Structures are given as structure tokens and as C-alpha cells.
């Protein structure tokens, strides 16, 4: 598993799988002396929508698809079983370098509110110029469909909202459209509870779901992983720092925008 950290904190970012694919076929290819056409990027995701995403026309920063194959976590588990691999007995190995390091901020992306929290960890330090003593933003954690909070940052009250599930997303968007809310930052995830509850995740029998909050249990695993990380802020990731210094330049640069950003068009239902 690989949790790429936030490379660009903008609403028009590519998804994490596409950003990693784009970087692997530009920066990584350049560092390793490889032709992007010779790189096959396979992503393992909790989301079935990623299968559509990889075929979009604007997901090809190097002139070839950013990601070639996208499988779900459930499909990976089936493949491991089918091949008779005893996964638990495999020796631990480090990730390849470059891009082998990740932070707690990258890990929590999978829980609703995780993207917001990861961005806040960086935004607060950037705006205040001071080290953030407590990196955990508890008010936007949890599996509730809508979470709102106000944080005082550098003398400014920053209003944030987190929604998961499309009905809750509509609720938030209607409040903004009607002038009932003036959020500075909104995070929306389609699946209730976030990616931990994605359509490609392992299915749990109803006998278990009726008595246990699976979304919360999976989110807790991510937060525990985050807490155990030595680096918990995206902007402190040595791999990301080196990526910008050697290749992308400044955050928001023309190169970063070209490689890491995407475009959106309205899609109507016939």
C-alpha cells in the first residue's frame, strides 16, 4: 500500500492514484532513466470509480496514461488467495526510493475528514509560522455524515465542513448556494465514512455490520497508523521536499499544475 501525500492543496487536484502515476512517469522516469512508455503503473484502491478515472483523456501528464491498471482491495485479496500466497509469512520490505516515504497525513486520507485534517496540519503551520504542537483535529474526525468546525488560525476564524455520502454533500452545497454558510474549506467524499467504506473494499456480513461500525473500525486503524508515524505532516516528508526541489519547483508552479491538476466537466444523467 502507498499513501501519497498531498502535493497540491487545490480543488482541481488529480486524485492520489493519478498524482502518483503522473509523478512516477515524469519525475521517477527521469530519475531512473526510464521511458514512461516502459512503466506500468498499477494502483490498488478501495474505490471502483478509479477504474473509470484511469481512462479519462486528461490523465496523461507524460503523454501516456498516468495509471495503466486499477484494481480494488477486494480484487487484490482474491488474487492473493487464488495464487496461494501466504501473505502473512512474506518478509517485510522497504518501499523503493525515491517516493518511498509517507507520513501520517497521507495515511488518514482514507477516512472522512482525513484530507481536511492533513491540509490543516500544513495550512496552520504555514499561516502562523509556528510548529503545530497538536496535529490532531478531533472535531472533524468520526463517521458522522456532516461535521463542521471553526479554528482560529493566525487571528482568523477558519470555518470548515466535512461531508461524506452524496445526500450529505447535497445538504452542504445547498447551504452554500443559499447563502446559509460561508465555509473557507469543504471536504466531500462520496462514500459514507470515506474511502474506508468504498465500493471495492472487503464486504462484511450483515451479522457483523448490524452490531459493529465497520467504518469507524477501519478509520481507527488509519488514525493509529498515523499516530505511530515519525513524520505526521505532508510538508515535512523528505521525498515530497526533494520532489519539489528537484523537479516541480514551487507549490503551484506551472509544472506542478500541468502534472498534478485535472479538469472537470458537468455530466448529466440521461
Task: Give structural notes.
The chain starts with 15 loop residues before the first helix and ends in a 10-residue tail after the last helix. 34% of the residues are buried. It has helices at residues 16-32, 50-53, 73-82, 104-107, 114-128, 166-177, 206-209, 214-228, 238-248, 254-260; strands at residues 42-45, 69-72, 146-153, 156-164, 185-189. It has a 3-stranded mixed β-sheet with strand order 3-4-5, sandwiched between helices. A two-stranded parallel sheet has the order 1-2. With 270 residues, it is α/β, with parallel strands linked by helices. It has 2 domains: 1-101 and 251-270, Rossmann fold; 103-236, Fe-only Hydrogenase (Larger Subunit), Chain L, domain 3. Helix content is 37%, strand content 11%. Strand 4 (156-164), helix 6 (166-177) and strand 5 (185-189) form a beta-alpha-beta unit. The model is unreliable at 1-11 (pLDDT under 50).
